Amino acid sequence: MAANEKATLSMNGKQYELDVIVGTEGEQSVDIRNLRADSGFITLDNGYANTGACQSGITFLNGEKGILRHRGYSIEDLCENATFLETAFLLIYGELPSESQLAAFTDDITRHTLLHENMRNFFQGFPLRAHPMAILSSMVCSLSAFYQDTYNALDPDHTDLTVVRLLAKIPTIAAFAYKKSIGQPYVYPDNSLNYCENIIKMFFAVPCEEFELDSDKAKALDQLLILHADHEQNCSTSTVRLVGSSLANLYSAISAACCALWGPLHGGANQAVIEMLDQIAKDGNNVKKYVDLAKDKDSSFRLMGFGHRVYKNFDPRARIIKKTCDKILAKEGIHDPLLDIAKQLEQVALEDEYFVERKLYPNVDFYSGILYRALGIPKDMFTVMFAIGRLPGWIAQWREMVTDPATRIGRPRQIYTGPQARDFIPIAKRESLPGRTAGLDRVTPHE
Ligand code: ACO
Known about the structure:
With 447 residues, the protein is mainly alpha-helical. 50% of the residues lie in helices and 7% in strands.
């Protein structure tokens, strides 16, 4: 975007003129790219909460108004009218696909769903209880060992093939990770099915009986994936951009994003929500106790699934998912006691001054866990499902970054607060650092 006007900064008796850059939705920024060179000052912004790291044409969100749009299309419209693969194409290539483009894209993805047979051996090596996110991130990184022929981030043909491979193979990796965790045989992809039907079959079919597909469940999953497809510069997406800015291959950048997503403050929150609801249920459904605990400044407990760095009004994704959640539960005749607790929690928190004042609303993860449960997906797999959904966004943001001439390797600065220069102390004269004398006797050596 063009610089429209200037901002003036006064420091140490000097004035600095900074460009003001305005986005297409009127978002304003002060361009500080030359500030350090001109003044010696850097900006300090923990968590980058007020720092624009790039200009991006992919996703617009307005946290105050609860708006989320991809390439100009509202999340509500996409959920109503598009499929996940159409949304993926839109995010990655910038426009909705024509009929023939969508057919070709779908066909390419369908024909790349198999994993190299050698990769099956890797699954065997993981312990039975391995978290599937550990398996997913390792396996995605392993893909880079199999496809070294398409590493060049600046070659569009390499990128197109890598995009297809990632979108095609990650659901297969996810399903194999699940089957490994429950000791069932892997189910190979079925090219006669659509993307989400295939995921459901790979997860739940067993070779000894006929598999019945429920198209409503496949549609609900498709919608869940659309809802997660991109969310501009969140933690995992910024990870993709940071890792990718070194021109590391796309598989490794996506693997790093999986690791970032795993954390309970990010994609791991959907699992944490169900664990929290479980804990409340075991504790006699005492919702008030946990609301009070979340408000207690002496406790580190937070209501999982509440609050968002950007949405300070409501999370539009949460509204859509809540409806689908109610629909599937009603259709399946599922009475989920955790849903009752979730509803009570939502009610109490929405009326409580602490949450109202801080604008803490249920986010997408609050309901997605309940819907995943209704689809039969176990809680350890929730974040894996989120990763499948977020994949097009990660790819689109990476692709935008590598083709943007303004991109530089990601390298934030810091304000150093450690000791100033001091003389080296010989070992005989050093004091012991309190608490660091004993070895790690809690851990079995060489474990
Ligand atoms: N429960 C209780 N209090 C909360 C919660 C919560 N879930 N979230 C924020 N607060 C409080 C904080 O204690 C703080 O209070 P204070 O001003 O009195 O100190 C205030 O609200 C602001 O919170 P911050 O931590 O500054 O907000 P931030 O934007 O840094 O964090 C986050 C956002 C990480 C999502 C936070 O709300 C949280 O931890 N939520 C629970 C985890 C969760 O649901 N994560 C999923 C996010 S969505 C996603 O990744 C798809």
